[in-house]
Amino acid sequence: MAADTTNVLALAHEILPVLTQRRSPRAYADQPVPADALNQVFAAASSASSCFGEQPWRFLVGTRAGSAEAYDKILGSLAEFNQAWAKAAPVLVVSVAKTTFSHDGNPNAWATHDVGQAVATLAIQGAALGLQIHQMAGFSADKVRAAFGVPADYTPVAAFTLGYPGDPGALPDALRERETAPRVRKPLAEFVFEGGWPQPEEERYDQAPV
């Protein structure tokens, strides 16, 4: 499958093309994700770095074609707004962090950071395969915990869709506008500080709208 080149990100400095192709669509094609592609993206996640090599990431996966019960559990944990569009995605996932170190049982304060690294790596591998993910904070960790029996020392972090991007025209007007709006990023000066923290009068928040 060719890489998704819709609404490619334009930046002031050249970066790897696959990084500019990664986006967060809400429109998905009615096309299942092959097992080998799923294995590739999760293998990519496993390549991420982590504190003490703990690899604290875990993933709860539901595919509409192969694990409908798990899919419905994850869909039911999403906020109503997210359910409305996420139900078109062929794969739903919840990332989970193991919050203690395996070697000594102490709290792992960097677990969610490392889970984020794993998901970012997964997203880039997906983009290289023509797949896209859309990460969501709008879900109920309590519902996930109850539905899947997640142990106490594991914390659901975020939910995300996974699939091949579809036609934005199938979305409601408001979501279609978000899907096709130009993608912008803050200039480096707003988040890269050399020599000291910027003073309030130097801070800029008008460069990149949320």
From TrEMBL:
<dbReference type="GO" id="GO:0016491">
    <property type="term" value="F:oxidoreductase activity"/>
</dbReference>
<keyword id="KW-0560">Oxidoreductase</keyword>
<dbReference type="Pfam" id="PF00881">
    <property type="entry name" value="Nitroreductase"/>
</dbReference>
<dbReference type="InterPro" id="IPR000415">
    <property type="entry name" value="Nitroreductase-like"/>
</dbReference>
<comment type="similarity">
    <text>Belongs to the nitroreductase family.</text>
</comment>
<feature type="domain" description="Nitroreductase">
    <location>
        <begin position="20"/>
        <end position="164"/>
    </location>
</feature>
<dbReference type="InterPro" id="IPR029479">
    <property type="entry name" value="Nitroreductase"/>
</dbReference>
<protein>
    <recommendedName>
        <fullName>Nitroreductase domain-containing protein</fullName>
    </recommendedName>
</protein>
